[in-house]
């Protein structure tokens, strides 16, 4: 009788702590039900990692521009570029998971925007820190983090962090203007690099390397804003040349500049 009572007590204790053969109470919510945000992140690990690296890029860029934490601000500059490079590398792996040693794979590799910005980050990691060079990585990280952030906010609740939701809405409304501003920054970084050479803060090879980046951005299949800006700059320059107030020597210099830039521009293949 004592054995039977002890067995009943052991069975009851095992059932209570879930260590026995009896299934746990189905009415108790599991961890995924208690925390849908964590469940979503665990289910989408690559997207979560991309989101975190982009947020880290934004934070480091802001801390470089506004050194409120003290210390060496250039460390945040390099961290922002390293984080952006990690984002581009992971995104590139996501787009082209199977590496192949042939020309078709290389064409697909250099056609991806992620490879362009991986090259961009490597270029400016090895040069004198330029505030202007952080603008594209900062804005791209900010824009691309919006979608996942909205998903996280929706999982947290329809009324959660309305201030952040409002900022995301405003960013998405200005997406075209932001992409145009990024493209103009990419273009005007070239004369800034030339100035760095004359100031002794960059090597003579840097403009040639950055030219390859600009050529890749010009032929981008996903982001045509670089081509749009080049076309608009050319139209504005040609319109300036038609003005009677424009001196002849300036007109000749502008026409030669248009001819030189047009010769450098790569041909864009129709997709």
Automatic annotation (TrEMBL):
| Pfam families (alphabetical) | TMEM33_Pom33
**One BP annotation, GO:** membrane organization
User: Which spans does this entry mark as compositional bias, Polar residues?
Assistant: 1-16
Q: Where is this region: Disordered?
A: 1-34
Q: Low complexity bias: where?
A: 23-34
> What topology does the record note for this protein and the membrane?
Multi-pass membrane protein
Superkingdom of origin: Eukaryota
InterPro entries the record matches? PER33/POM33_regulator, TMEM33/Pom33
Q: Name one GO cellular component term.
A: endoplasmic reticulum
Q: Where are the transmembrane segments?
A: 51-70, 178-198
- Its chief place of residence is membrane
Subcellular compartments: Membrane
Q: Which UniProt keywords apply?
A: Membrane, Transmembrane, Transmembrane helix
| PANTHER family hit by this protein | TRANSMEMBRANE PROTEIN 33 (PTHR12703)
For this chain, the family text in UniProt reads: Belongs to the PER33/POM33 family.
- Protein name as it appears in the record: Transmembrane protein 33
